[in-house]
Write a structure and sequence with these properties.
This protein is an alpha/beta fold and about 230 residues long. About 45% of the residues lie in helices and about 10% in strands. The protein has 2 domains: about 140 residues, HAD superfamily/HAD-like (Rossmann fold), CATH 3.40.50.1000; about 70 residues, Putative phosphatase, domain 2 (DNA polymerase, domain 1). It comes from Segnochrobactrum spirostomi.
Length: about 230
């Protein structure tokens, strides 16, 4: 008999494990408004999940504004300040802590890979109860490119010592699913970030669940056996 490949899980953070997507949207809206840029919040939401620099570049290009590097960096810092001012009210999504505890107790490797930088992710990770001395956390600061490039998930798999092709990427956005496909991992979508099931499936999700609690309830469907 041949031994089965060990499943591992690579998690996005915002909208996947913590209820923070709309805080990011409002923080970006505040940053853009401070720069004299008027943009509807729904347009901002469609880009959440990308790296901050790529996000700013795409938004500014859409409205035909100057996209100089200095302005992009200024927007990124404004966003981080606005987001961090809201971070104390951000909470884990239903079932997030329980899901991570289940994986840990079952000996199933898991890591976090987020397009956010540690300056915004740090406090949220603390709210989630993630011990960064024991769990690999790959942020935008550690890779050349963020989502939809696969670098974050590839780095997270490497940190776990697993093959990304045997990993499940759990995310809430189309950018997560596109990055998962490019990393040759299986994509699992959750609806807790505001993207619809069909959008996630078109981007590569082979299963879609409501939130971490729903994923935990169906964990056997995605290879999360003890």
């Amino acid at each position: 008999m041949t031994s089965r490949h060990q499943t591992s899980f690579l998690f996005d953070l915002d909208g996947t494990l913590v209820d923070s997507v709309y805080d990011h949207v409002l923080a970006w809206h505040e940053a853009l408004t401070a720069e004299g840029i008027e943009l509807s919040v729904w347009r901002i939401h469609r880009k959440i999940g990308m790296s901050g620099g790529l996000f700013a570049n795409m938004l500014l290009r859409e409205i035909g504004a100057d996209i100089g590097a200095e302005r992009v960096e200024r927007l990124r810092h404004r966003h981080a300040e606005a987001y961090n001012s809201r971070s104390q009210t951000i909470r884990p999504l239903p079932g997030a802590r329980e899901l991570l505890a289940y994986l840990t107790e079952s000996g199933i490797p898991w890591a976090i890979a987020t397009s956010g930088r540690m300056e915004t992710a740090g406090r949220v990770l603390d709210h989630l109860g993630v011990d960064r001395t024991k769990v690999p956390v790959i942020t935008r600061d550690l890779v050349k490119y963020a989502k939809p490039d696969p670098d974050l998930f590839l780095a997270a798999a490497e940190a776990l010592g697993v093959d990304a092709a045997n990993a499940c990427v759990v995310g809430d956005s189309i950018w997560d699913m596109l990055a998962a496909r490019r990393a040759r991992a299986l994509g699992i979508g959750v609806l807790s970030g505001g993207y619809g099931q069909e959008e996630l499936e078109r981007s590569g999700a082979y299963r879609v669940y409501e939130d971490p609690a729903d994923l935990l309830y169906h964990i056997d469907e995605v290879g999360g056996r003890r």
